[in-house]
Design a protein that fits this description.
The protein is an alpha/beta fold. The protein contains 18 helices and twelve strands. β10 and β11 form a beta hairpin. The N and C termini lie far apart (about 55 Å).
């Protein structure tokens, strides 16, 4: 049996000679047993290589029981080779040699950091030149390791960086310098910590319950949420549920995307997996005590995340400006956010190195959060929750896809159309009449969606037409009951929503 690891600081930089800090993850384990059989065992290339290196014959079945997710950078390959070697009864000195050999086969040019930490129960300071040294420290904060569900292959990443070393060298050196800065405070603070690494896209009640059990067991002094909307909503939901136990734990929110504004709101959205519906929660207890906006955390975002999160922020701002609860102050925030997004979102999408665009989008997302926290939202979000929950579509993506349709639907009411007209006029779009202004805004959103590679209708999300139509009644009822619907400035009924669900499909 052996455990996983996480690189705390210095990820990838260790490959190029910098120091890295790793921590053991003892709750994630691999257990291996060997079983003699009379049949030749079929193994993939990696397992075959490890078996041959450990001198395990072809008829021995390798039974693997693992809680370490593969392809997430948690040392699953090192853990597997070590667990197999231990099951074979190989000596400690020989195990390291075998694990190093297997890592070179699997990853090509590993630093050696994974093997060292998987073999150790204490945090390590590691470099290629000096090897591994124990770096015992404890954290008095609660750390979350966010699993996006995206699988990566270390070998491919290493090859890509090597092939583009000139481009990535400044970032590698920066990562190395960060490690040096944190060594001393880690040693001095003696902080104890726990990591919850099971956060998922569109977090479910089940995942929150798992995290809640950890929090109650550990009772941290503070919770730190680092990630996108899903990780922040998970942490905020923990705050929501622990109040029932008369516990109050402060939350520090560090968003790594520019979209949800979750770091400054009392909202969270959880998914009911059993019924495939998203359930928005709202409670003042979910306000993070501290929010830290650091645009450096967004400089490695893929284009798809920039697009989805950015258009989500735009939807927040437009709905905030036009909803029932809007007032003079929320509209100032919302309109400023809208301006920033139209000016900077495509810039950030087109060039993630554009620091000014990243800074402005961080501001825009947060400001939109301030706005809708006080004003509320509308049916754009209600419908997005229903479609996203049923068909597992990214929240921002579906928000942006249906936004032009919602603008046009709401504009059938002249009072609402005037709100869209005001936005369009302020942005300099054609707006000689109320109708022209509202339509100009809808067209501007469509053009922005197109430039970001976002779909023009739900059909473009590869959702089967018949399957979709069969769910319209259910989704319409779900949207009608959604807390966001009450905020829509144009009154809607069940039939209105059914027609809208039909229309947004395309």
């Amino acid at each position: 049996m052996t455990h996983a690891k996480a690189i705390f600081f210095g990820e990838h930089a260790v490959v190029y000679g910098h120091e890295g800090i790793t921590i053991p993850l003892p709750e994630m384990k691999i257990n291996v047993t060997l079983e003699n059989t009379n049949e030749i065992q079929h193994r993939d290339d990696i397992l075959e290589y490890i078996a041959d290196t450990c001198e395990i014959d072809k008829k021995t079945k390798i039974n693997i029981n693992s809680t370490i997710p593969v392809g997430r950078g948690l040392g699953s390959s090192a853990a597997l080779s070590i667990a197999i070697a231990r099951a074979k009864g190989i000596t400690k000195t020989k195990i390291r040699e075998i694990a190093d050999k297997c890592e070179k086969f699997i990853h090509g040019n590993p630093s050696g950091i994974d093997v060292n930490q998987v073999l150790s129960d204490t945090p390590l300071l590691f470099s290629k030149e000096h090897g591994a040294k124990k770096l015992p420290f404890s954290l008095d904060s609660y750390l979350l390791i966010i699993d996006t569900g995206v699988v990566g292959i270390t070998k491919h990443t290493l090859e890509h960086v090597k092939d583009n070393l000139k481009t990535y060298k400044p970032y590698i050196d920066e990562l190395g310098s960060i490690t040096k800065k944190v060594i001393k405070p880690l040693k001095e603070k003696n902080i104890d910590y726990r990591i919850f690494s099971e956060v998922e896209v569109d977090p479910s009640f089940e995942v929150v319950n798992k995290a809640l059990d950890k929090v109650i067991d550990f009772l941290p002094d503070v919770i730190v949420a680092l990630g996108g909307g899903s990780s922040l909503d998970t942490a905020k939901s923990i705050k929501y549920f622990i109040k029932k136990s008369n516990l109050s734990i402060p939350l520090i929110a560090l968003p790594t995307t520019s979209g949800t504004g979750s770091e400054v709101t009392s909202y969270a959205v959880l998914t009911d997996r059993k019924n495939n519906i998203k359930i928005p929660l709202k409670d003042d207890v979910m306000f993070p005590e501290f929010a830290i906006l650091d645009p450096e955390l967004t400089k490695t975002l893929p284009k798809s995340v920039v697009a989805d999160s950015g258009i989500d922020a735009l939807t927040h701002a437009i709905e905030s400006y036009t909803c029932k609860g809007a007032n003079f102050y929320t509209q100032i925030y919302a309109l400023y956010s809208i301006k920033l997004i139209f000016k900077n979102l495509f810039r950030m999408y087109n060039n993630i190195k554009d620091e000014e665009a990243r800074v402005e989008m961080s501001k825009a997302s947060c400001i939109a959060g301030f706005a809708f926290e006080k004003s509320g939202l509308g049916i754009n979000h209600s419908i997005a929750h229903a479609i996203g929950g049923k068909f597992h579509i990214a929240h921002g993506k579906i928000n942006g896809t249906i936004l032009p349709y919602i603008i046009r639907f709401n504009s059938e009411d002249k009072t609402t159309a005037k709100k869209y007209f005001e936005i369009a006029k302020d942005l300099g779009f054609p707006a000689n009449t109320i109708e022209e202004g509202a339509e100009s805004l809808a067209i501007a959103v469509e053009l922005l969606n197109k430039s970001l590679g976002l779909p023009s209708c739900v059909k473009d999300l590869a959702i089967d037409k018949e399957k979709y139509r069969s769910e319209i009644d259910f989704m319409s009822k779900s949207a009608l009951e959604d807390i966001c619907t009450a905020g829509n400035i144009k009154e809607v009924n069940l039939e209105d929503l059914k027609k809208l669900f039909e229309k947004v499909y395309g």
